[in-house]
């Protein structure tokens, strides 16, 4: 019964008013913006994101898969695509919440323990650095991807995670996980 509620400032059980909640939320946002790895309030480039996964495949198989633009496009799926472009590659990341996407021309640098995609974005240089090392207890290969991209931290992290998760599935099963419609015995007519 709304008519029987007491008049005056509304208070929660803890005694904090709604205007106090607003001030606390603003203070929390200000603190979070200054923590390491957070994007500045203006939407600038976040610090690099890192993902690590252990694969049963060899380092040679991992790096061979990550050098191929067609395989990279399969791994990125709905997040983007990669095409060969001259001596380098063009990465296209789809837009999402908080960003318009990214078109990025890169050069590939190979190393003994990994590879690095690097190229200019705006006024800076962005990169995806992949390193491999033997996994503990001879459990395969540990693959680490560090993405330093002018995307929101969550988008860059999602791209790095998706790339490695789907790479592991591809090298283990020969297939990339997908939610696209699969053939089934169900009647599609309804």
Architecture overview:
With 190 residues, the chain is of the alpha+beta class. It has helices at 18-33, 59-67, 69-76, 153-173; strands at 49-55, 80-85, 88-93, 102-111, 114-121, 124-134, 141-148. It has a 7-stranded antiparallel beta sheet. The longest helix has 21 residues, at 153-173. It is globular. The N and C termini lie far apart (46 Å). Mean pLDDT is 79; it is low at 31-44.
* Count of β-strands: 7
Give helix % range: 25-40%
Order of helices and strands: HEHHEEEEEEH
Q: What gross morphology would you assign? A: globular
Low-confidence runs of at least 5 consecutive residues: 31-44
SS field, number of helical segments: 4
- Taking the alpha carbons of the first and last residues, their distance comes to 46 Å
- Please give the largest β-sheet: 7 strands, antiparallel
What is the CATH fold-level name of the domain at 49-173? Alpha-D-Glucose-1,6-Bisphosphate, Chain A, domain 4
- Give the spatial strand order of the biggest sheet: 1-7-6-5-4-3-2
- The helix-and-strand class reads alpha+beta
> CATH top level of the domain at 49-173?
Alpha Beta
The fraction of residues in strands falls at 25-35%
Specify Rg, calculated over alpha carbons. 23 Å
Mean pLDDT: 79
What is the fourth-level CATH superfamily of the domain at 49-173? Answer: START domain
What is the annotated CATH architecture of the domain at 49-173? 2-Layer Sandwich
